[in-house]
Every structure is written in structure tokens, then in C-alpha cells.
Amino acid sequence: MTSAAISGPPTALFSPAYYQDPYPTLTWLQENSPVHEFRFPVGDVPTWIVTRYEDVKAVLADPRYSAEAATYATPEFKAAGLVAAEGTILERGIAVVDPPHHTRLRRLAMKPFTTRRVQEWRETVRAIVGRTLEDCARRERFDVMDDYAGEVAAKTLGEILGFRIERHRELVEALNQAFPSDPALIHEAGPAFGRICEYSAELVAEKRLHPGEDLTSALIQTSDDDGDRLDEDELVGMVAAMIMGGSDTVRGFIGNAVLALLDHPDQADLLRTSPDLAGNAVEELLRYDGALSTALFRVTTEEIELAGTKLPAGAPVIAGLLAANRDPRHFPEPERLDIARTGKRHVGFGHGLHNCMGAALARLEGEIAIHALVERFPKLALDVPREELRYIDSWAIRRLTALPVTASGASRA
Amino acid sequence: MRATAHVDRNLCLGAGLCEVMASELFRLDAEGIAVATADASGETGPDRLELLRDIADCCPTGAITVTTTDD
């Protein structure tokens, strides 16, 4: 689009200023360049970002936008080190393979994650949230990210997968290194994926010896009607995918949700007085400011025309999930937080084949943790000036670095 | 063999996996919720049945059930 060449978005895509507030840029793109070509900061690779709801859904529902960058990406993309987890078993992990391989992996692993099965973990999550809240109450001043959301996400994942909590921090660190936004740090991505796989392999080995009630043990046992099972690499890859998908994302989401409620005290009051709205509130909070900024890279398998823009074969395409969820073409008054909002489906968990497998668990954690916090601390308030809050430098994950609060509302801010 | 695919509209959250896997068998309606098409039920060969079961097993909400009758 010529208008994009003349003036640009308010902040450059995937720049430090963009991470602090991506919405003005995303809105500008929706209006002026809905299928927008830019240079990805790592490797300076030509990349397209899609920001309108309909286009995001269309990309994620079309098999010609492959998740297999290792197969379809250009040599330039590969040379930049952008094929996620290249050289590790995660290179063939569930998030980055197409059918039929994807179908087989998902079939074997999906069962424990369905809405109904996840309800079995409700009491576990409730107990973890209850204990964590008491710790926060004793502190009076605490950081929602580290002391609450991070604890709830890590303990839940640890309990469900059956691993020891001490390992969690190093795993989160590895995770942040696996998806660097700073081009200078791309060389750390491979070893970081390696460390996650290594830990996952240890966990699988331990659970083979000492099976428990956890999901890792269940995945080792799982087989379909024909006796098909996950092999060792697939098992390790699946557990690693769960570690990567289920920790920092949940933490990020709870943090974004709590901040949204602090920014909208009327909505926090409504949630407190109407616990029946907890489930609906989670959907609206996921729409309003979810933890996934974008889906993982898709790569075109052939030349495709999308909303009037021609994409060459091998084009890296980024589906903007935050943008789609604020598209006024789809959501009336998208900037308004309304926990009673109904009807339109958000794409906070992605869409299509690779929609989040852990969505039901994330919803359960969010529903319990967010409601419990506002109920336990009706006077909860920010403990720093609002403008001091910062987001991590990540193009894929939207997460606050810290969210200091005071339970009694007696703020130093 | 006859197969019948059914989507529980109370469970479905419109993730769209079924429509991507087989748009002739499942569609998202105007509300974004999945419905099984007329083709998803009726006389079924082994390949079609396997596909229906694949889709039901991959659904993130467990909203799809496939039942079969011999005749």
C-alpha cells in the first residue's frame, strides 16, 4: 500500500516502544495496511503481519499457510535462525508440523485437555490459588506477576505435569531465551530449546520409573484404539511443548487481566458481586488484552492473494491476535472492557488446527485465580505509578515485567 | 456402516479445528460455533470414519461425538 510507504505506523513493529503499547500501531495497520510487509528485526527478513479479525482467521484456517517453516521457508528465513527449535526434537513438535503428522500427535495428546477432563483439576487449582493468596495477604504489598500469577501458573503446571517447582524459574528463563526479540541474542535460542528438551527428557525418564497421577505419566501410557503410541522423541517434545505453552502464557494473562480490572474498578466490582460472570469475564479479558500477541510464524506454501495483497511462496506471515481481538469491524467498541460482553469469539488462543491445546486449563486457571484475587482483596491497588509499568520485549508474548500492588489499597504510588 | 457426527453447541467454543480438517463435514456458523454438515452423517466408508474420529479426538473442547450403526 502506498499510504504505508508515505507515513508509517506510530511505532515501528517489534521495536522497544511497540512492546510497551502495541495497540496504536496495530490499529494504524488495520486501517492503512491490513496485510503489511515489513522487515523482521531478526535477520532483516521480509515478513507480513495480518491485523484484521477476518484475515487473521482466514490465515489460521487455510492449510496453504503452513506451520512448517522448516519445510517451506525461504533460505533467508532459515539462515536468520528463525525456524523455531531447529536442531532439537521440537523442530518436529506439535506446534510446527502440518497434517497428517499433526493430526496423529494431537489425537494422542488431546484427551486430558478437553473442557470436561480439565474439570478434574479444579480443586487442585483452587487449593493452589488459596494458598498463594494467603501468602500474598501476609505480604500486604506484593508483585502480581512473581508472587501471584507466576506462582499459580508454575505450581499448577508442576502439579499437572508432575515436576518439582524448583526447576520452574530456570525453565521460564530458557523460554524467554528461546524466543528472543533482540537480534543479538538469536544464538541463545537453540541452546534454550535444548535445555527445555533436556528437562522434559529427564521428567519422562523419571515418570517411566515412577508413574504418578500426573499428565506426563498419562502421556507415557496413552494409546489410541489401534494401539498407536507416542514414541520417545514425540513424548519428550509433547511434554516440552506443554512446559513452553503452559507457564509464562498463563502468568502473562493473569497479570494483564488483573491490570485491566485495576484500570476498570467498575468491572472489578461487577466481577466481585457476580461470581457467575467469572467464566465470561475470562473470555472478555482474553479478548481485551491476552498474553499471545501473535500466533507462531506461518509460511505460505504457494503464492497467495490475501485481501488484495500478493504474498509470494515461502512468505513468513504473522497473525496478529491482539490486533484481531480489538478489530472494530468485528467487536463493537473494542477498547471497552465489558465482562458481560457476549457473542463474538475472540482468537486469544489462536484459531484452526493449531489452536491452543491447553485452552481449557488456561481458562480454568484464569477463572479461579482472577476472581479469587478481586474477591479476597476488594481494595487492591497499584503500588507504583501506572506509567512505570513495563512489558517484556517480546513480539510473541505480551506480559508485564512486574505488577506491584497493595492489598489494602494504601498505595505508596 | 452409517456414521453420525454431532457437535455439542454448549461445549463448542469455535476454535475451528474441525472446519480446517474437513470443511465438507464441519462449518462454523454465523456465531462462530461448529455445525456438522449433512455430509458428516450417513453411509460411511473406513476412510471417512477415521477422519471423523480424528477430528473428534483433536477437538479442544471434546464437543464432537461420532456414533456408528451397522446396516
Automatic annotation (TrEMBL), chain A:
Q: Is the keyword Metal-binding assigned to this protein?
A: yes
UniProt-recorded Gene Ontology molecular function terms: heme binding; iron ion binding; monooxygenase activity; oxidoreductase activity, acting on paired donors, with incorporation or reduction of molecular oxygen
Q: Which residues form the signal peptide?
A: none
- Keyword Oxidoreductase listed? The answer is yes
InterPro entries, sorted:
Cyt_P450, Cyt_P450_B, Cyt_P450_CS, Cyt_P450_sf
SUPFAM superfamilies in UniProt: Cytochrome P450 (SSF48264)
Keyword vocabulary terms for this entry: Heme, Iron, Metal-binding, Monooxygenase, Oxidoreductase
Q: PANTHER family recorded for this chain?
A: P450, PUTATIVE (EUROFUNG)-RELATED
Family from the record = Belongs to the cytochrome P450 family.
Record-given protein name = Cytochrome P450
UniProtKB/TrEMBL annotation, chain B:
Known SUPFAM superfamilies for this protein?
4Fe-4S ferredoxins
* Pfam families, per the entry: Fer4_15
Check the record and name the Gene3D superfamilies matching this protein: 3.30.70.20
Q: Which cofactor is recorded for it?
A: [4Fe-4S] cluster
Q: Which InterPro entries match?
A: ET_Ferredoxin
Top-level taxonomic group = Bacteria
Q: What is this protein called?
A: Ferredoxin
Specify the species. Answer: Streptomyces albireticuli
